[in-house]
Amino acid sequence: MSAVSSPFPSTVVGGDIGSIIVGCKLQVLHGTPSEYRKAEVLSIRPTPVPDDQNRHEYYVHYSDYNKRLDEWVTPERLNLLGEIEYPKAKKPKSALSGLEKESTGKASEPGTPGASSRGTKNNRKSQLSKAATASKSGGDAGSPAPGTPGTPGANKRKASAMDESGEKVPSIQVNGNEEDDDDASSVANGDTPVGAGGNMDENGVFSKEQEIEKLRTSGSMTQNPHEVARVKNLNLIQIGKHEVETWYFSPYPIEYAYLPILYICEFCLSYFPGVKQLSRHRVKCTLQHPPGNEIYRKDDISFFEIDGRKQKVYCRNLCLLSKLFLDHKTLYYDVDPFLFYVMTMRDEDGAHFIGYFSKEKESSEQYNVACILTMPQYQRMGFGRLLIAFSYELSKVEKRLGSPEKPLSDLGLLSYRAFWAETIVSLLVDQQKTGIELSIDDIANRTAFQPTDVLHTLQNLNALKYYHGQYVIVLSDTVIKNNERAMKKKKREVDPKALNWKPIHFTATQLRFL
């Protein structure tokens, strides 16, 4: 739901609940601690059980706070007596200006800015039209998606689109109870999509409003993932013994959006609306660990390697789950090009999911991680560092230098910077005792870090100094003391001897994912 122009002045003091629209900014009561914070209303929806007091819920983003704090609130948490800032009215585009632009575009010669702009727009429309037409052929793993008015509910959907720059936009597919997604994109398979409004234009392209509304109801992002992803659709999940607050939007089916808790099987990652359905599933579900090869076991920690092509349902469920806690990744329905490495903690009940990372089977950029996640209930316990260390241990076996795919999330960036700094400083301190000098390439080869990551880490540590016409690495006393303090903390380490793994070499046929 995009911001609407308001009939009210831009800022007023006091108002009624009926005057609150998308785009309004006002004070909202935040739960912890209980205080009023300025927030923007991003979306409005009817309550699951409307009554005289609460007919709608309001999705708000707190200004100057992290997006993961966004939440649905009831009307009593809105301060209607204070200052309310309404969105500015947008100037309507006149028909005359549109004709002028069209005539300007036609008059432009090839190679002129007008012609280039018009060509890009036409190309984008034709690509979208082709995508809508091609989607009639269907895909290999369709699922019932929630229907919209005038649309059959159980259609396989597949669409690819172009973004405003003309590049392909990743999309998401929803697969009934067996949903998908990676840290990548979203494509949906099947019949020609129908917008929430019902119709496309003559070029087969949705209007922005139709597209956004369709995405909200189907859980599939095909054109502009940024707007729909602003609104979190689930507040709480239960996985194993843990109830976890979600952070971001994930394209679970729309019928689950009103659930107070979504229940997830911690072994196969299937999701259910209630405890009863989960209990019935657990009677039938025989999994007690991820469905892949166990390639590492040390103490109570195990790693499993899973091929996205062989275990599509599990990997799609994994990606759906991870999207609840990852903001910077778009979504891939197609998990075939990825390998997934799942970390678990074993006890008498089975191997419990802690986190994972994925990597492309063939990366032209030499990325050793595409997406990485530690579940919130296991964060600040050293498991994120263990995941990172394990990814580089695999790179050492492959005899390659690796780096995580960019951009990293805020927490991911902090974790990687800390790991790089600790590893590099420890290596330099140990080498100082031997009297052997190391270059940036030497450090990269010993750690399997990319030279650019080594360079940036040394720059962040302020360890590069210009001396006698060349750059040298100099560690300050503060850096060394901080490293000694960090090394004294008890940490889980990857034991290379416990790794039983050989790199998988894929043929050209196996890397053909279409």
TrEMBL record:
Keyword terms, alphabetized: Acetylation, Activator, Chromatin regulator, DNA damage, DNA repair, Nucleus, Transcription, Transcription regulation, Transferase
Classification via PROSITE patterns: MYST_HAT
GO cellular component labels: chromatin; nucleus
Listed GO MF terms: chromatin binding; histone acetyltransferase activity; transcription coregulator activity
Location of the region described as Disordered in the Swiss-Prot/TrEMBL record: 90-203
Ranges annotated as biased composition (Low complexity): 134-145
Pfam families reported for this sequence: MOZ_SAS (PF01853), Tudor-knot (PF11717), zf-MYST (PF17772)
Subcellular location(s) of the protein: Nucleus
Polar residues composition-biased segments: 114-132
InterPro entries: Acyl_CoA_acyltransferase, Chromo-like_dom_sf, Chromo/chromo_shadow_dom, HAT_MYST-type, MYST_HAT, Tudor-knot, WH-like_DNA-bd_sf, Zf-MYST
Gene3D superfamilies according to UniProt: 2.30.30.140, 3.40.630.30, N-acetyl transferase-like, Winged helix-like DNA-binding domain superfamily/Winged helix DNA-binding domain
Catalytic activity: 2-hydroxyisobutanoyl-CoA + L-lysyl-[protein] = N(6)-(2-hydroxyisobutanoyl)-L-lysyl-[protein] + CoA + H(+); L-lysyl-[protein] + acetyl-CoA = N(6)-acetyl-L-lysyl-[protein] + CoA + H(+); L-lysyl-[histone] + acetyl-CoA = N(6)-acetyl-L-lysyl-[histone] + CoA + H(+); (2E)-butenoyl-CoA + L-lysyl-[protein] = N(6)-(2E)-butenoyl-L-lysyl-[protein] + CoA + H(+)
Name of the protein in its database record: histone acetyltransferase
